[in-house]
Amino acid sequence: MKDIQNILAGLPAFGRVQSALEGGKTPVLAVGLSRIHKAEFVHGLTAGGRGAIVLTPDEPGAVRLCEELNAFYGEETALHYPARDFVFRPVEGVSHEYEHARLGVLAKLLDGQCRVAVASCEAAFQHTIPPGVLGGRRAVLRPGASFGTEQLCAMLLAAGYSRCDQVEGRCQFSQRGGIVDFFPPESTYPCRIELWGDEIDTISTFRVDTQRREDTLKQVVLSPAREVLFPSQTGAGMADLLERQAGALSGPRQQKARQQLLDDARRLRDGLELDCCDRYLPLVYPKPAVLTDYLGGRLLCCDEPMGIKDALRQISWQQGEDAAALLEEGLLLPGCGSFYEDFGRFVRECEHNPTFLMDSFARTYTDLRLAELVDVTATQLSLWGGDMALLKDDLDHYLQSGYRVAVLAGSDKGADLLCSDLKEEGLPALRGDDPALMQKGRVLVAEGGLPAGFEYPADGIAVLSSGRLVSTAKKKTRTARGGTRGDKLRSIADLTPGDYVVHISHGIGIFEGIVKKEVQGVVKDYIQIRYGAGDMLFVPVTQLDLVTKYIGGREEGTVKLNRLNSGEWHKTRQRVKAAVSDMARELIQLYARRQQLKGHAFPPDDDWQREFEDRFEYTETDDQLRCIREIKQDMTSDVPMDRLLCGDVGFGKTEVALRA
């Protein structure tokens, strides 16, 4: 349904919230809101273009609320800002996926390209890169701009990118003559910059798997790759700082910390990267930032403030316990054990920024001085599963009670069909997408879908939604490493015990399930992987992107397992790289010869073809239309076509093939 926020416009409770915020009152609390209503109120407050940062007590709640907000927006407007694990100890194969996602959201907030960011209180109050540093380390690169290869490489190093022979993942860069490749953290594809002397000639994207150029770009933003950036472009400046800190430490209890500082300073002077930059975050940023420092006039929305209070208190306690243990090991400097803000910071943010608090129940708020309290009477409704008899009973009840009611039926064709069915059942159904058409005595059937229905009994409004939600998120066809969607794990549900898996740093093992382990007083979930000779590896579930399903061959039905710390996996990867390079060279020669051949060019569409396509009774999906367009382009060209049409059962392959 278009402009669904118009439903809220006539609600007195929403009007009170909106008027209070526009009048400068803060914080404003609304009680009686269930999950779907919280998303609806935030959507209504931001529908006019105003931005917001939304906080929740925990990470699953943030993910869920972000999805619900995007269902209201009809597109991927709300972005999730995830929490990340700080790395204080050297660990092989650390995942930076969440850190890159955080940097992408912060950059969009800074540029005004992100209207709504949703975060747990843990993520929001983790220390991060200050806005001034983030803006200062970014650069917009355009063709014609004066940049030399050495200058570009220095900028990439200063922004936290890792130099490598060939770009294979995010936040890496490589340089070959006058070509500089790099992979920004928020981009889907890496970028290639070709220079002519000291001037940028062209900028384009390229594929990780083939290293071939694709689309030409008018500009690209070089943005930081890490949240902890050292103050100079080389490691020498940071090494000097660490050596000065080491010189200030004395006494036997600080000997471990002093030695750690000197070891890290030596690594930096040798041109090596530090595995554990996070432990120097308080040293690099004397005044670190948190997510709310990127508000920039946006509205601060907080879900269940008491839950946020309890979560932040637990985080503060755990931070103290962790800092004590790390100081004892010499991994942290004295006075550098703070990496989170406490509940007091949350209270100050609520008092000094336009803030909207949402709670399911009325309760006492002793820590916050509320400027306005609004009581909302609202009910969340279950999704309609498709049973026409149940839907008719619900609609009869609402119509007899004098409600204005709407039903969201998923797709446009689904709405047309449902409207026709309701009329056959004798119900006064009207097909339309404007909430202004909702009137007493009839049912408005609209396109779209929500995670749940909702009802405002005091105002006589009900919206029912079917379970056939319309997906609005843009699907990525490639992963950051250039693999297909089938090899990279997106969820623990993709694995079952006994599956062969591959860890990027340790090789082939067997997935044995999820276990809970206590480390430094914190209980977390870990992926347990068994390797050769009984070796066990425990990978935090937050680093799932480092593990992929094994899709290689098997000898006599079995797969040879690697052993941990044997060097065997590293040698295997080197051999595979060499073999892939040879294969790529052969394929380039093969395709070069193929491009020189001449094939049969079919004529463009005629009237019969167009009539056949126009009479297709279903609406084509975006993927179907793309495949049809690409196949027609191939068939009307005189270059021999080499194409495979692939898709699941029932996804419309036959229709595409018939057109061909």
Indicate the topology.
Layout: H1 6-9, H2 12-22, E1 28-31, H3 35-46, E2 52-56, H4 59-73, E3 78-81, H5 97-111, E4 116-120, H6 121-124, H7 131-136, E5 139-141, H8 149-158, E6 162-163, E7 172-176, E8 179-182, E9 191-196, E10 199-206, E11 213-216, E12 220-222, H9 235-247, H10 255-269, H11 281-284, E13 299-303, H12 305-329, H13 343-352, E14 355-359, E15 372-375, E16 379-381, H14 388-400, E17 404-408, H15 412-424, E18 429-431, E19 443-446, E20 453-456, E21 461-465, E22 500-503, E23 507-519, E24 522-530, E25 536-540, E26 547-549, H16 568-596, H17 607-614, H18 622-635, H19 653-659
Parallel strand pairs: 1-14, 1-15, 2-4, 2-13, 3-4, 6-7, 13-14, 17-19, 17-21, 18-19
Antiparallel strand pairs: 5-12, 7-8, 8-9, 9-10, 10-11, 16-20, 20-21, 22-23, 22-26, 23-24, 24-25
Helix pairs in contact: 3-4, 9-10, 18-19
Task: Characterise this structure.
By secondary structure, the protein is an alpha/beta fold. Helix content is 35%, strand content 19%. It has 19 helices and 26 strands. It has a seven-stranded parallel β-sheet with strand order 3-4-2-13-14-1-15, sandwiched between helices. Strands 6-7-8-9-10-11 form a six-stranded mixed β-sheet, covered by helices on one side. Strands 16-20-21-17-19-18 form a six-stranded mixed β-sheet, with helices on both faces. 32% of the residues are buried. Mean pLDDT is 86; it is low at 468-486.
Q: What average pLDDT do the residues reach?
A: 86
How far apart the termini lie comes to 35 Å
**What percentage of the residues does DSSP assign to strands (E)?**
15-25%
Radius of gyration in whole Å, from Cα?
Answer: 29 Å
Estimated structural class: alpha/beta
Low-confidence stretches: 468-486
Largest sheet: 7 strands, parallel
Shape designation? globular
In DSSP terms, counting alpha (H) and pi (I) runs of 4 or more, how many helices? 19
Strand order of the largest sheet: 3-4-2-13-14-1-15
Work out the number of β strands.
Answer: 26
Residue share in helices?
25-40%
